[in-house]
Design brief:
alpha/beta; 11 helices; binds 3-methyl-2-oxobutanoic acid
């Protein structure tokens, strides 16, 4: 049964306080947003992962503000009673805080997002402060930051050494201090995620960060099994790719044998 209560981003803090898990998934289109709204999702994320998943780029770096604005707008149109958070793409918030506010404002004003997500730590604190001062809720994102792939070289677990773990902790503290309403912790050891979750008063939302975060987020396409090879931290709850290929093949066979269209599907 869908949760018919009005869902807002304010509920996330309440859930942390009540020790209830926060659940979020990605959506990039109206139809997916509509059926996800029928599930007990706390918020939908229009992730810049749409660069990989929808656009077929190798990284999220080419994703533009125009693409984020369009996908956010169509997700908001399909979402029923569930808040939509939009990712700020690479170089839409780093240049200066004023531009960050303008771009965040576009995702809220033009596309209807309830908040924005920004990847980063100390480098984005000014932008986070400016955006929250403009009354736009910001979701932080630390640990593995896919937008830093050119410096990282590969997407791997972050915070494995004491020094790097301490940096991630400092970033999470600074983001909380700057006013984010929650923070995504991506690909870090479960113990580190647990320590951050226990220390912060705002919710943590993990992806590849173990079970002790306040909530979990995944890319919807990953959990549905649209890919042949899932990422290590993704559990595939169905094999959509095989179902789709089998169904299409069946359609092709039935057209070839004349079985489709039959009289039930003709005028
Ligand atoms: O871009 C994205 O989809 C994300 C997450 C899944 C957290 O940042």
């Amino acid at each position: 049964m869908p949760n018919m209560k009005k869902r807002t981003l304010f509920l996330l803090q309440k859930k942390k306080e009540k020790n209830e898990k926060i659940i979020s998934l990605t959506a990039y289109d109206a139809l997916t947003a509509a059926w996800l709204s029928e599930c007990d999702i706390d918020f939908l994320l229009v992730g810049d992962s749409l660069g990989n998943v929808v656009a077929g780029y190798e990284s999220t770096l080419p994703v533009t503000m125009d693409q984020m604005a369009y996908h956010t707008e169509i997700v908001v149109r399909g979402a029923v009673n569930v808040p939509v958070v939009a990712d700020m793409p690479f170089l839409s918030y780093e240049i200066n805080p004023e531009e960050a506010v303008r771009n965040a404002g576009r995702l809220v004003k033009q596309s209807g997002a309830a908040g924005v997500k920004i990847e980063g730590g100390m480098n984005i604190i000014h932008a986070v402060k400016k955006i929250t001062a403009a009354h736009i809720p910001v979701l932080g994102h630390t640990g593995l930051k896919p937008q830093t792939i050119l410096q990282l070289g590969k997407y791997n677990v972050q915070g494995k050494t004491p020094d790097s773990a301490e940096i991630i902790k400092e970033e999470a503290r600074a983001l909380q201090e700057a006013g984010v309403f929650a923070v995504v912790l991506e690909c870090i050891p479960g113990k580190l995620a647990q320590e951050i979750t226990e220390e912060l008063t705002i919710p943590t939302i993990g992806i590849g960060a173990g079970k002790n975060c306040d909530g979990q987020i995944l890319v919807t396409h990953d959990l549905l099994g649209w890919y042949e090879k899932p990422k290590h931290f993704v559990k595939q709850y169905s094999n959509f790719r095989n179902t789709a290929i089998t169904s299409v093949q069946k359609f092709i066979n039935e057209v070839n044998t004349g079985e489709f269209p039959d009289k039930n599907h003709s005028f």
